[in-house]
Amino acid sequence: MAQLRGAMPVFSSHTDWDGTRLPATLAQMLVTEDLARSFLDGSRGRVEAVRGLTLRVDTGEIYGLLGPNGAGKTTTLRLFATLLRPERGRIEIDGIDAVDDPVGARSRLAYVPAEAGLPERLTPIETVQLFGEIQGIHDAGRRAADLLERLGAANYARTPCSSLSTGMKRRVVLARALIHDPPLLLLDEPTDGLDVGGRRDVLELVRGLAGEGRAVIVSSHIMGEVEALCSRIGVMSGGRIVAEGSVASLLSSTGTRELGDAFLHLTRDNAAPARDNAAPPRDTASPTRENAA
Amino acid sequence: MSIADDPQEAGARRGSMGLPAVRIHPSNLRALAGMSVAIIVRLLREGLVVRALAWPGLLTALSMFISASVTIAWRSNPVIYVSDASVVEPLKAADFQVFVVDDPEATLKDGRAERAVWREGDKLVLGVTWGGSLSYKAESVLRNLTNERWRLEVPAPQKRRRDNVELRPVTGLLAGVVALLFTLYGVVIGAGSLYRDRSSGVLESDLALPVPRWIHAAARIVALAAVLGPALIVSLFIVDGLLPIYRLYHWMFAGFFAAVLGGTLGVVLMARANSVRGFSGPLSQALMVSMGLISLGYWSPAVGRFLPLMSLGSSFSGNAASLWIVPVAVLIAAVVSVDFHRRELV
Fold first, then answer.
1. Are residues A11 and A101 in the same domain?
2. Into how many domains does chain A fold?
3. Which listed residue, of A229, A230, A293, B160, carries a Cα 20 to 30 Å from B127's Cα?
4. Domain match, A94 and A123 both
5. Per the CB < 8 Å rule, is B212 touching A103?
6. The whole model's pTM is what?
7. Taking a C-beta distance cutoff of 8 angstroms, is the pair B31, B211 a contact?
8. CB proximity under 8 Å: A 245-264 to B
9. Chain B interface with A: residues with Cβ < 8 Å
10. Residues B178 and B239 in one domain
């Protein structure tokens, strides 16, 4: 297996956690190749938030993007959600080129940002229903009510969103995300700010959604959460995926016994996003490219 | 990389000049309507917005009420002007302050008196400009004095003179101030709602909807028009109820487009600003540009009357807005929507 930066192991997104090639028959929900995006920062110059990201996520899979703050997780999810445009690279969502056809790609995904993003003055039922109506979903009101019922938020359907608890807001946000029945869910820090009970409920919900055949990409910096939830983990640091695989494979490759230790081992040399004063260098180390090589 | 978001435009994403190709599809209109409704509902449930929109009308109504109260109090002074000495004592006995003058009728018509009694032939005439209990009391005294049956005839009120030349500057100023106020509201609401949506994550969620991005800007402009327009019109009607506004509908026309374009400026400058710049920077920029354009319209009415926002300034200098501001406003809204379409905003 190819190695990146000395002893650091790298796993290809095109291989499963045992290192074997995935069969071509598996439905690829999200495929990215050599994705890159940088930002201009007043004090730091050009910061490469995402560098040469190559990834594949299949239907029914829960993929965890694990990384420290500033690793590029949110930027990555925003690129997938077509909120940001990549400077280079390719994103394909359910067979649709997200760069050429962002609206088509967005119709196949739901993006749930870290902040709840619920209009305070609307009620959950109004919020979910309006999202449905904007997308032209037939009988959006009934579907919104069904979703809120299913996600355990029906009792609060007519309470203003500003009065909801953080956990209830998460349920409403998920209901809103599911109104158009997307096959891909992008969840940015889905349990941020939740107590133990709320966190467990949300994780259960996410598991249930993946069980229905959806692909779910979860970004988080909480080890336990990712360990409990995800079938595959991509460890991000400095805008790159520095390692990828199942918890077991990450532990064995780093020679550690806990995911936290493996995480620190993998990320300590890639703590900050790369800086550059000009265009990002094309030869920036990309784990999957190197792996492919 | 394409900057067009429309799924129907896979093959033709850029126009001939490299500008983004944005075409309107029926499903986009449905999305535009839905998103506009959502923004309107949210704005109308915002206490601050509703209070801001309501207070010009309420303030005017309150001033009308106070004016009426003061007038009633002033007119309660028991003064009466007479020319016939025979009526002096009975009126004094009824607690009137009686002033004897040569021509009480002229005094009444000049507006110097509320009540006056004069003689026409062998008849006594009571003239009043204001009904009220004191007038009826005076009538009662005179009826007892002459021992005749008579009828108090109140002349029909004068028609309101909308074309009163003397009042034109005053009514124009009043209407203009209300329109200016709504323009400022437009700027603040347009910039504020976008800032709030961006900082709370609402915008990020909205942008992830599978609709072209220009719809988000267009919906905001439509919502501003729907919220500010009726509030402005009602406020101007209330002012008109107090004092007939010369060229009322012209003020409504210029004010409506100024308010909506002010809001559009707020949206576009907030959208163009980096999110770390906060609220006050883009807001002050938008306020400055709006006021600058209105001032330009005041000083250059020959040009200003053809452009929205500037036409409000031109109206202050007595030049009514041209109908050309309608297509210009639509064009500006389209340009703003396309600009929004090209931005990342998160």
1. yes
2. 2
3. B160
4. no
5. yes
6. 0.78
7. yes
8. none
9. 1-3, 5-7, 10, 13, 27, 30-31, 34-35, 37-38, 41-42, 45-46, 197, 200-212, 344-346
10. yes
